[in-house]
Amino acid sequence: MDKLSTSLVDTIPTGWYLFIMPRPTKHAPERGDARTRLLEAARDVVRTKGFAATTVDDLCKAADVTKGAFFHHFKSKDALGVAAAEFWTETTGAFFSVAPYHLARDPLDRVLAYIAFRRAMITEDIVEFTCLVGTLAQETHATAPDIRDAAGASIFGHAETLEVDIAAAVQDHGITPEGWDAASLARHFQATIQGAFILAKAGNDPGLAREALDHLDRYVRLLFGCVQSNMSGAIQ
């Protein structure tokens, strides 16, 4: 294991980087135009109430815009749902692209640091750390295919960002996958994370989400023959 990458990740205290990285899941101090405010409102209100229970009036109130402004930008609530999923993809994609788990030299360090980063994002406010597109996919998969597809593109697209590091870790560590590959393991990460959010909601306990990420960390270490987990992203 690369000594520089291990020491680099170890010097980043869990959660510290979240204080210097503005989360894409909170309102910006200076709010943008009406369309942006409506997308931000959808991001927050839908995660709080669910898509079906969210009304156009709710969104207009949260965004501080008129109904006329809403229908100027979106022909329907479903159209707003598609745009909100795409907005989520854009803003969270930018957030994760510069996250510090990319800094480690060893690809397995980067994979484990990603898990640690996701764990550190879990706060006591369940709404804040849960996933808009996961909520949309669950609610609309059979009723609004356009929203479902936009949500799915976001989830699967994020999974794909992990594939290169997983594939490199497989090669570097001489692993011979049986019944899985980098793409399927990356999707399993998302299945675990989305499931962790559901458990946290069901139990009203963020600790359940952290527990799920701890198990994911152990699972990956077992796959790659590592013996100990410290959630730092460094191999023991």
List the helices and strands and how they pair.
Blueprint (H helix, E strand, L loop, with lengths): L2 H8 L5 H5 L13 H16 L6 H8 L3 H7 L3 H21 L9 H14 L5 H4 L2 H9 L4 H28 L9 H22 L2 H18 L13
Helix pairs in contact: 3-4, 3-6, 6-10, 7-10, 7-12, 9-10, 10-11, 11-12
Structural summary, described in words:
The protein has 236 residues and is mostly helical. 68% of the residues lie in helices and 0% in strands. It has 12 helices and no strands. It has helices spanning 3-10, 16-20, 34-49, 56-63, 67-73, 77-97, 107-120, 126-129, 132-140, 145-172, 182-203, 206-223. Helix 3 packs across helix 4, helix 9 packs across helix 10 (145-172) and helix 10 (145-172) packs across helix 11. It is elongated and about 60 Å long. The model is unreliable at 1-16 and 231-236 (pLDDT under 50). Residues 55-74 bind DNA. Pfam families: TetR_C_13, TetR_N. Keywords: DNA-binding, Transcription, Transcription regulation.
